[in-house]
Protein: N-acetylglucosamine related transporter, NagX
Organism: Spirosoma radiotolerans
Amino acid sequence: MQSSLSESQSIRQPKTSTSRLLSLDFFRGLTVAAMVLVNNPGDWGHIYAPLEHAPWNGWTPTDLIFPFFLFIVGVSITFALDGRKKDGKGVIGKIVRRSATLFLLGFFLNFFPKFDITTVRIFGVLQRIALVYLVCSLIFLKTTPRQQVYIGCGLLVGYWLLMTLVPVPGVGFANLEPATNLAAWFDKTIITPAHVYKPAKVWDPEGLLSTLPAIVTGLIGIQTGMWLRNTRPVAEKIAWLFAAGCLLTLGGLIWDGFFPINKALWTSSYVLLAGGLAMLGLALCYWLIDVQGYRRGVLPFVAFGVNAITVFFLSGLIPRIMNLIRITQPDGTEIGSKEYLYRTFIAPPFADPKDASLAGALTFVLIWFGILWWMYRKNVIIKV
């Protein structure tokens, strides 16, 4: 996709069947930058409410970041695999290898630096991305668009019925409470409490059972990607995307009345809400960037988008390495180098600890902006 605004014909009629969408890279980069921001506050004890997850039911802007990324995974599948449906075992082998690589990268993040196999968390964000990518890719290769819709609806309705009707062993009734719901029981039984998310203790927000509706988030992305790639007029594509996004969002809000929006459980209402908002967001980016040719402030986020997995992995690994470097304070206590830098150079000018914490997170993101911009200008793209 050419970036020159003088090529107005190319911009106003983007060849989405064959070319890469700049808006998709921008939307991916914006999502990953937000993910890095919320995952790296200066002080975990002082965070503004919109930058925290909802305690249980309900949602905040932070709760939309992960499903947005899975939605983007689905959109990207249509661009990467549509021309390879006839490649058979070759393309399936590459899908499996990429999924395994993502899973192992996520497992390594959990494993480092303690390397304790008896307590390491098995699942996590990259692991869920790996599973969703694997399943959605295979569904895309082996089914029709209509069949994909049926599969998605079946998974959402089936998950709703499982979570609200099936009695939980040891509890005796179906419920959606943190420690006693069916997904928590499944995690405790299959994964065991020693290998789940430590703050939750007995359940995992990226556990196995809740991965089923997460697959539908990817399928919504696939449907969006196929719609963007068809040959219909651009105005018609954008109109339908906005309409579908509004309907999905409304459906999620309605379903919330009897199956609450909940990220930890990845409830069906949450899938519709996040999928609808993601569709609206990408449609807006597509219209502004690829159709209208708006470019101001876009490329720095594109730099984030083309190395998304790399920055997510390293932004999780580097703070852990920095915490291994201990610095002795005047009172004799030791703290990690990351915390030392925050306390020494970022926090002092701020009276409000929440402002200081946000400044620490923004500083971390800006450092990555610099690194990724250099990589983008040098055409350094690390593919997983």
